Amino acid sequence: MKKIAALCIGVGCMLTVTGCGSNVTLNTEQNDMVSEYIAGVLLKHSYENQWEYEKLAAAKKQSESKNNNKNHTATGTNTVQQTTQPATRSSAMTATTAAQNPSSTASATQSTAGETKAVTSSDEVLNSLKQVLGLNSGISLSYTQTVSGQRYPNEQYSVSVPANNSCVVVALEFELTNTTGSDITLNTASSNAVIKLGIEGTTFTKSKTILKNDMTNLKSVTIPAGQSYTAAAVFQIPEIFAQSLENTTLTVGSANAILGTMELKK
Description:
This protein is an alpha+beta fold. It is 36% helix and 29% strand. The protein contains 4 helices and 13 strands. The strands form 5 sheets. The chain has a 4-stranded antiparallel sheet. Strand 4 (151-152) and strand 5 (161-162) form a beta hairpin. The longest helix is centred in the first third of the chain and has 51 residues, at 50-100. The chain is elongated, with a radius of gyration of 37 Å. The relative contact order is 0.12. Residues 61-121 are annotated as: Disordered.
């Protein structure tokens, strides 16, 4: 080790003094570069600094390992996301098939986003919806149909809700009938009603709109005695589900609880 150090120092001195020959002269910057190189060589082969270099090398190796793990994790995440989506779609179709089979115990429940909702009779669910909306006891509520398209409603010159990008608008229409002999004014904007649409095991929450007949946003809507009014719950649904509206579910709840789920027919 001492011989190597002496040799390097000697070479450095020779370069500094003679520049490796009488015809070569080093300027200050070149001389500093040579000195820095010699110092690095000495330090690299110095036994006293061996631990420091091993420590630095280990740190560099550890850093490279972390970067490789990070890149591997990112790649793995993308792979999981790509393989999970078809599986979720498949699971949703399995849930729908089970719901269509009356002999299956799975038809009694549908699980979505960690929630298990008992499928109850339509009368019970609609009665729960009526109560959570705070509708007058003289109002009869019934589900009439499901409509879908690029906007709702479709009447010309009407205020409508357009479909978001890659989505279709789905509206559940309900008939509110005044069964009394007097006019009844409806206000549901202050209710905490929650309305969800289930398609192939995936649940979509009702969109809030400025439509006058928005089911959860009725403001001073008067229904004359003996007459009916059409209210709607509007949803933005990805196009992939547009062909699966034949068998869907309506889930009714409040801000704190799920009150019931019923099957819908388009």
